[in-house]
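Box 3.1. Reading complex inputs
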Amino acid sequence: MIVLQDDRLEFRFPEVHAKARCSISFMRTLRLPDDNRSYPLPPGLGHFPLHHVDDFGATVPSAWMRHGGVFLPMYQAEAMWINFNCHYPMALKIAAGKVCALTGETWAPELVPEPQNYLVVPDQPWLDGFCVGQDLIRQFVAMPLGEGYSAEEQLTGEARYGGLQILAYPMKADVYKARFEQPKLQRMYSPMMAEAAYAPPEMGLAPGGLMRQEVYEDNHGFEAWDTSVSSRCFVHILNSVQYRTVTGNYPPSIPPSAADYARAGLPWFEYYASDLAALSGAASLAGLDSIAAKKIKKGEGVLADNEAIQLDRIVKLSNGQVREGTF
Amino acid sequence: MTLGRYLRNARERRRERDRTYSLRQVALRIGVEPAYLSKIERDQVPPPSEGTIRRLACELDEDSDLLLAMAGKVSGDLQAIILQRPQLFADLLRQLKDAPDHAILTVVREVRDGDW
């Protein structure tokens, strides 16, 4: 079952194990410069609000009611990262517009070990984007669906789904009991907008700037996962410009630019889990146009707020350390 | 079991495997004096504020609602929810007071999955 609690998705499998729970939140963050240089991890700037689609059936796009799930607001060209918080190991499939963020393949519910199409929590504390290389991702950045920027549109030629799709499989209970009799005491924390008078409400995730982040190989073995049970959720993305119309609430404030943040001397982050091997990334995802490149190809000029930045303060993190920034 | 004893047991369990869970270091991390935390753990002072209980829950990886209940408190967010529709929620809670866990779980609202 999945419940919504304090703007977090709580995946629970009480039928497998009382501790089989995983909390997922969607973090606001800085958009990295999209200049083909790789950057360290940006901070979390608080989480996006989450709402049941069903609560706003009269005002959300009609397809969303068919999909079910939840939605969150993002400004055009705003970035996000996904924060995982759990103790009980789970295999998570993450897709954007029904395109796997790890392999670039179209959505299928099955776990596949080679090429690995899932990440493993709590080993993986967060995911910031599309896995394009062994220690490189391209940041998740929201763009209006239908304008050709999203990974979904670039790979399938269609602007059909948008949003994020998440599917969770828990570890088998007997494997958990055998390997984790004394649960580890680690806790996983985490650590733009040209507003048009009218903006289409539905957003997809497009590949933004490059970031140094590893997506780890499954360290538990494929047989550890209980594929007889699963829970999935469609996370729609609503253009923040439409947020008030849909919900009656004011949207979150506009986040600072990466340059403003860097100029203020605030920290960026590097994360090391040296005992884990990293996936090699997907060639299909590596071949996608980033937003800045696509904008030039489309003859729409250069991406705003995309100046290169000088980073003076990089904090090295290990398991259990907070990745939060204030501004 | 009292709140203080529960907290002390939880902290001591962690300290057996991680020395940073000493009374002094935990107090430092949650922003109170070690002497005050010691008194809380020995039930020599009234239960601390909701904020302190929440920080303790986070620090010790315990459920904040459970700790608040042991302290005889209802969390602020629940109070706000009840105050919005007091009669409805009072009626709901009375109706469910003797219901078994599985029956209560059936009224927990799940995120609906659809066709996609």
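In summary: Helices of chain B lie at 3-17, 23-30, 34-41, 50-60, 64-70, 76-84, 86-96, 101-107.
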